[in-house]
Specification:
7-stranded mixed beta sheet, N-terminal domain of TfIIb, alpha/beta, globular, 7 helices, Rossmann fold
Length: 250
């Protein structure tokens, strides 16, 4: 039986573009110290080995019990890497990181402004002065406004075929967008098996996101439509990659 971490990896994109984006960002800073990154919501840890291979230090937080053991296994032989169970709420370091990242929508799981506001303060304290907060988010309400029903996706893992059937539930009153992934796994030895994973995201428009960053003292905010993009844009489309600089004293 494939684990949820296996299914995550079967459909996740390679981390190369994210690694390249982060390294370009730090290269432009001309800092002499080795970068220290906090990867919040690290999933199975796919981003960590290529950064560790570049000499970066990484502290990974993962709250999901389906993904945490895989992350620990993934980074077992990586130097200067720590994996902790938890999420943004568990960030307790002060003046420790050059970058804090939430990749693959991890920050969108925080469903209310009352939960997000104090966490921006925690993040600002955890960052070194002029450090970066990078959040990879679904761009709401662009997605519901341009909605297209998902089609089945094909994947493979360890020689097994996986078909992902995705459903969405949009609740504008509650401000949530729910993704339900039902993965049907087939191999030559028996009947197909199915696994289901549910993700609930906050619907937050980019202007609200910018206002929340500003209220927490973040400055120099840039919005990118993807990790491949070399230049920021005024209003992204389906993805919102925000890069904000810590502008307050820790």
């Amino acid at each position: 039986m494939l684990s949820q971490s296996d299914l995550y990896c079967a459909f996740d994109t390679a981390p190369d573009t994210v690694v390249a984006f982060l390294t370009r960002l730090m290269a432009a800073e001309s800092r002499s110290s080795i970068p220290h990154l906090a990867d919040i919501g690290a999933g199975p840890g796919r981003l960590i080995p290529p950064l560790a291979a570049l000499g970066w230090s990484v502290t990974a937080y993962e709250p999901d019990p389906d993904y945490l053991p895989a992350a620990e296994t993934t980074v077992r032989n990586c130097p200067n890497v720590i994996v902790r169970q938890g999420g943004f709420e568990d960030l307790a370091e002060v003046d420790a990181f050059d970058l804090v990242c939430g990749i693959n929508s991890s920050y969108a799981y925080l469903l209310s402004p009352s939960r997000r506001a104090p966490l921006y303060v925690l993040i600002a304290c955890a960052l070194r002065r002029n450090g970066f907060l990078i959040l990879d988010l679904p761009n709401f309400p662009w997605i519901p406004d341009h909605y297209r029903a998902p089609v089945p996706q094909d994947g493979q893992w360890e020689g097994r075929r996986i078909v992902r059937h995705r459903q969405h539930q949009i609740d504008r009153e509650r401000g949530t967008f729910t993704t339900i992934d039902r993965d049907v796994i087939s191999d030559s030895s028996g009947e197909p098996t199915a696994c289901t994973k549910v993700h609930v995201y906050a619907i937050v428009d980019h202007s609200t996101h910018l206002a929340e960053l500003a209220a927490a003292g973040f400055t120099d905010v840039r919005l990118f439509p993807s990790f491949e993009a070399r230049a920021p844009v005024p209003v992204p489309a389906s993805r919102l990659i925000s890069v904000a600089r810590q502008g307050t004293a820790a």
